[in-house]
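Long-time lurker, first post. I've been practising inverse folding by hand and with some scripts of my own, and I keep getting stuck on stretches where the structure tokens seem ambiguous. Below is the full token string for one chain I'm working on. Before anyone asks, I'm not after the true native sequence, just a reasonable design that respects the backbone. If someone could post their per-position residues I'd love to compare against what I wrote down in my notebook.
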């Protein structure tokens, strides 16, 4: 890229992608750095985990999305260093270090799962933040039913058929509802030694109600709908133990409850990207308990007007960590940069327009909060369907997602039930490697040796064919 104003965007989520697309002007160059190759539509991850959608339908390649934007470049890498004074940013991918300078920086690195200081829980209760998480959970959920077919005791069968979802927010509600629907509808005729409708689905949370941000009325409606579908809702209990065989809760009165369960899903709490601490250390900005950075009203960092923080990483006016905050923040940052490049007045403080919140419970059942309007049941579900379809990236993904939804809702079948051992165990295996995936990546020297070996083998194959020796007996000397 040339000497034009250079904008570096960190993250390919809602904030990063929408910021990049809003910068498609001829007078700036944009480099988007992301540790994944795709843009993830995170609100539909649970549908990948429960076999409704394929991962490609909610995670199109970022390069494909930005292919027609000539001033945008996509770089794969995880940002691990920043120098705000020098205006440089450093990323790494499997030991390959890449450094970029910038004129403006938009950090939209998002958030990961929070286990509230108990990260070892992740070994047995995957979160719901990435495609890897969703595929692992798909393997664990469908694998539990497969293992239940082989159970030799009643206790073993009950453990395999018990699913615990930690968290009563939108993700937890949606996961619990879909696992119950799997057991009672999709899989009800697929097994011979047990009835899948015996499955026990338990949703737990320390909060006193389901869906707290939706208010008491919609929370009560959601809880009643889940219970009608066979989901047990346990509120007011803090998770104190998660192990291979189950989960333990501690209640307000000090009593404890042990639930034996092979499959646990963690849908409670988020923690902002570690980049937040790097930014705070260099700027003196405050961090909240979730690791989010306190920003100025124009989403910039104190003392660094060229650095914007958007989405799940920013702390401003108690804004929620939802897609619309990231989208609007990304667009606002891009608009501010455009105004500066054109030497025009800035757009003023960031103002968030709340378009409402929605959560689906099961087929034809959802809750929606739009301003003062509270919707439930089929109307809310149809609204949820339309909104999520519109926000999927690309016509191809919208079309295939709609087809999958039609098949699932009309027949109870799910086309994405394939699960592999690699999906289930790869995360834990990589975590045990010193250096992670970089430790198994081949070096250039290795590839040169392999190339020489393959070339020699190909030359010998050619010689055997041309000389007519292939298939002929070679007499011992």
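-- Answer (accepted) --
I ran through it position by position. Result:
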């Amino acid at each position: 890229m040339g000497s034009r104003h250079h904008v570096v965007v960190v993250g390919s989520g809602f904030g990063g992608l929408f910021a990049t697309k809003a910068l498609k002007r001829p007078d700036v160059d944009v480099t988007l750095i992301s540790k994944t190759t795709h843009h993830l539509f995170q609100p539909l991850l649970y549908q990948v985990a429960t076999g409704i959608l394929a991962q490609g339908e909610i995670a199109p390649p970022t390069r494909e999305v930005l292919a027609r934007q000539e001033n945008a470049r996509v770089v794969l890498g995880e940002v691990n260093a920043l120098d705000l004074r020098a205006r440089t940013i450093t990323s790494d991918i499997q030991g390959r270090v890449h450094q970029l300078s910038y004129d403006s920086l938009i950090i939209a690195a998002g958030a990961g799962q929070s286990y509230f200081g108990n990260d070892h829980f992740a070994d047995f209760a995957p979160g719901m933040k990435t495609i890897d998480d969703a595929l692992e959970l798909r393997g664990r959920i469908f694998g539990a039913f497969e293992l239940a077919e082989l159970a030799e005791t009643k206790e073993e069968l009950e453990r395999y058929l018990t699913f615990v979802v930690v968290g009563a927010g939108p993700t937890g509600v949606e996961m619990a509802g879909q696992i119950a629907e799997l057991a009672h509808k999709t899989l009800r005729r697929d097994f011979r030694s047990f009835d899948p409708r015996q499955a026990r689905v338990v949703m737990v949370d320390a909060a006193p109600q389901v869906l707290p941000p939706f208010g008491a009325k919609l929370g009560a409606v959601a809880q009643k709908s889940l219970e009608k579908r066979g989901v047990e809702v346990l509120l007011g209990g803090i998770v104190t133990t998660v192990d291979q065989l189950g989960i333990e809760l501690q209640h307000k009165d000090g009593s404890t409850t042990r639930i034996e369960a092979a499959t646990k899903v963690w849908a409670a709490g988020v923690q902002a990207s570690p980049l937040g601490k790097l930014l705070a250390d260099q700027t003196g900005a405050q961090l909240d308990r979730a690791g989010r950075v306190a920003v100025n009203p124009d989403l910039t960092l104190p003392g660094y007007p060229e650095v914007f923080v958007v989405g799940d990483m920013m702390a401003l006016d108690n804004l929620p960590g939802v897609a619309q905050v990231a989208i609007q923040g990304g667009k606002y940052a891009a608009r501010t940069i455009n105004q500066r490049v054109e030497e025009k007045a800035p757009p003023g403080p960031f103002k968030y327009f709340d378009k409402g919140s929605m959560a689906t419970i099961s087929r034809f059942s959802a809750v929606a909060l739009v301003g003062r309007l509270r919707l439930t049941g089929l109307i809310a579900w149809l609204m949820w369907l339309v909104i999520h379809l519109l926000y999927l990236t690309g016509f191809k993904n919208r079309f295939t997602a709609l087809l999958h939804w039609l098949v699932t809702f009309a027949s109870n079948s799910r086309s994405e039930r394939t699960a592999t051992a690699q999906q289930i165990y790869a995360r834990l295996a990589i975590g045990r490697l010193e250096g992670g995936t970089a430790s198994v990546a081949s070096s250039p020297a290795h590839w040169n040796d392999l190339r020489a070996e393959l070339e020699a083998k190909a030359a010998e194959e050619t010689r055997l064919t041309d000389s007519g020796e292939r298939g002929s007996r070679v007499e011992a000397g």
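A couple of notes from the structure itself: The radius of gyration is 25 Å. The longest strand covers residues 28-34. Happy to go over any region you disagree with.
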